[in-house]
Structure formats: structure tokens, C-alpha cells
């Protein structure tokens, strides 16, 4: 409750500063609308905003799930086999050398204007950070755990899933936090490049029609979705991994 109160206080402070900035400098609505104007637009177009927010939320959730699973599988493969590691690691580096934003038009061309291209964008953005975090966690297993497992003469597969993977849970939690934080970027960028629905699409349409207050309302909903996803994930991780100190 204390953390929630702190965030609520910070939010109210930012809203107050926003309103003061607009009032002091008498900024026009078409450049920088006041929070009151944005709130009024939220109330006027609630159904429209929620329908587009639903699409974006589904894209983020599916991209997050697919990207995290793919990153975890890649980290396990990198740990299991040196040959796979020698083949897969350069591909991981290359995937980060090419800007994801640059291939967004290609994804829209190949996968169409539907959800598939936006989900693929989210997967590409979170894939490398999740893989790197999980791989580091799997490699940094305490030596005492490994020595005990070797004494018990367990198989390499059992070593991975019963020793290394449990030891890597804190790193997996960090990777999941990173994924939740950046997954909305992929979905929205995909909607900007080519889409007929979603908050990113609505923001572009509102900007083209000089409905800046509506664009800010869509941006506010996107921020709210991102924060809710992060805090829900953080709460779930703290409940699931109570022994990990830095999660608290």
C-alpha cells in the first residue's frame, strides 16, 4: 500500500505540474492540451479508446508470452550444447545489430496488417534481453550446487532442469521484468507502421486530424497498460519467489 501511495502521489504531482505548465505559458490545445482536456476526451470516447486498447493489450500479451518462451528455450539450448551455442550466439548478436524498427515494414509486408506482425515485433524486441538474462542465470549456478549434483552423478539433463534452472530463477525474473517493460514498444511500433486498429493506430489518426487531446488520451491508456502489466508481474514474482531478496 505504501508503494502504491507513493506512485499515486507522484502521478498527482506530475498532473499538477502539467496543468501549471499549460496555464502559465498558455499553450494552445493543438500543441499541448491540458490534463483536463485529455480527461474530457477520455470520457467522450471511452468506448473507442477501450476497443483499441483491447487490441494493443492482446498484442502485448501474446508477444510477451511467445518472446519469453522463445528466449527461455534459446537459453536452455545455449547451455545444453556448445555446438548449438556456437551457431545460435552469432544469430543473437546479428539480431541486435539490425534495428528492429527498420524491419518493421518488412514484417507488415510478410505477415499483413493484422496482429501477427505486431506480435512478431514484440517478440523480436524482447527476445535478446530475455535470452541473455536467462543464459547468464543458467551459467552462474553456485559451484557448491554443481559439485553436489556431480557427487550424486545425475545426468546432464537432470543437472540442467533440477539444478541450474532453479538457481537461475532470479535471473529469469529479471528477464521477465525486462520483457514486460519493453513489450509495448514492439506492439505500438508495429501499429504505427501498418495497422487498422490499436492504440498506436489511433494515435496516428488523431495526430493527422489535429486531435492532440485524443492522441494524449490514447498515450495515457498505453502508459496505464504498461504500468499495470509491470506491477502485476512484480507482484506475482514477489509472491512466487519470496526467497529472492532483490525482488522485494
From TrEMBL:
<dbReference type="InterPro" id="IPR035906">
    <property type="entry name" value="MetI-like_sf"/>
</dbReference>
<keyword id="KW-1003">Cell membrane</keyword>
<keyword id="KW-0813">Transport</keyword>
<dbReference type="GO" id="GO:0055085">
    <property type="term" value="P:transmembrane transport"/>
</dbReference>
<dbReference type="InterPro" id="IPR000515">
    <property type="entry name" value="MetI-like"/>
</dbReference>
<feature type="transmembrane region" description="Helical">
    <location>
        <begin position="87"/>
        <end position="113"/>
    </location>
</feature>
<feature type="transmembrane region" description="Helical">
    <location>
        <begin position="214"/>
        <end position="237"/>
    </location>
</feature>
<dbReference type="GO" id="GO:0005886">
    <property type="term" value="C:plasma membrane"/>
</dbReference>
<keyword id="KW-1133">Transmembrane helix</keyword>
<keyword id="KW-0472">Membrane</keyword>
<comment type="similarity">
    <text>Belongs to the binding-protein-dependent transport system permease family.</text>
</comment>
<keyword id="KW-0812">Transmembrane</keyword>
<protein>
    <submittedName>
        <fullName>ABC transporter permease</fullName>
    </submittedName>
</protein>
<dbReference type="Pfam" id="PF00528">
    <property type="entry name" value="BPD_transp_1"/>
</dbReference>
<feature type="transmembrane region" description="Helical">
    <location>
        <begin position="119"/>
        <end position="138"/>
    </location>
</feature>
<feature type="transmembrane region" description="Helical">
    <location>
        <begin position="167"/>
        <end position="194"/>
    </location>
</feature>
<feature type="domain" description="ABC transmembrane type-1">
    <location>
        <begin position="49"/>
        <end position="233"/>
    </location>
</feature>
<feature type="transmembrane region" description="Helical">
    <location>
        <begin position="57"/>
        <end position="80"/>
    </location>
</feature>
Amino acid at each position: 500500500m505504501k508503494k502504491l501511495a507513493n506512485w499515486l502521489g507522484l502521478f498527482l504531482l506530475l498532473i499538477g505540474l502539467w496543468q501549471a505548465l499549460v496555464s502559465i505559458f498558455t499553450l494552445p490545445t493543438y500543441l499541448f492540451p491540458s490534463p483536463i482536456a485529455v480527461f474530457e476526451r477520455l470520457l467522450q470516447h471511452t468506448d473507442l479508446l477501450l476497443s483499441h486498447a483491447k487490441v494493443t493489450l492482446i498484442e502485448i500479451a501474446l508477444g510477451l508470452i511467445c518472446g519469453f518462451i522463445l528466449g527461455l528455450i534459446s537459453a536452455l539450448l545455449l547451455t545444453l550444447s556448445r555446438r548449438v551455442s556456437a551457431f545460435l550466439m552469432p544469430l543473437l548478436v546479428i539480431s541486435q545489430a539490425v534495428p528492429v524498427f527498420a524491419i518493421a515494414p518488412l514484417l507488415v509486408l510478410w505477415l499483413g496488417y493484422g496482429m501477427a506482425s505486431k506480435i512478431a515485433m514484440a517478440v523480436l524486441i524482447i527476445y535478446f534481453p530475455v535470452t541473455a538474462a536467462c543464459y547468464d542465470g543458467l551459467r552462474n549456478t553456485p559451484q557448491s550446487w554443481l559439485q553436489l549434483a556431480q557427487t550424486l552423478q545425475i545426468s546432464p539433463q537432470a543437472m540442467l532442469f533440477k539444478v541450474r534452472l532453479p538457481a537461475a530463477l532470479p535471473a529469469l525474473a529479471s528477464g521477465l521484468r525486462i520483457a514486460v517493460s519493453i513489450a509495448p514498444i514492439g506492439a505500438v511500433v508495429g501499429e504505427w507502421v501498418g495497422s487498422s486498429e490499436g492504440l498506436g493506430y489511433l494515435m496516428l489518426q488523431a495526430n493527422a486530424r489535429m486531435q492532440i487531446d485524443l492522441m494524449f488520451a490514447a498515450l495515457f491508456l498505453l502508459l496505464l497498460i504498461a504500468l499495470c502489466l509491470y506491477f502485476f508481474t512484480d507482484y506475482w514474482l514477489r509472491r512466487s519467489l519470496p526467497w529472492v531478496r532483490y525482488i522485494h
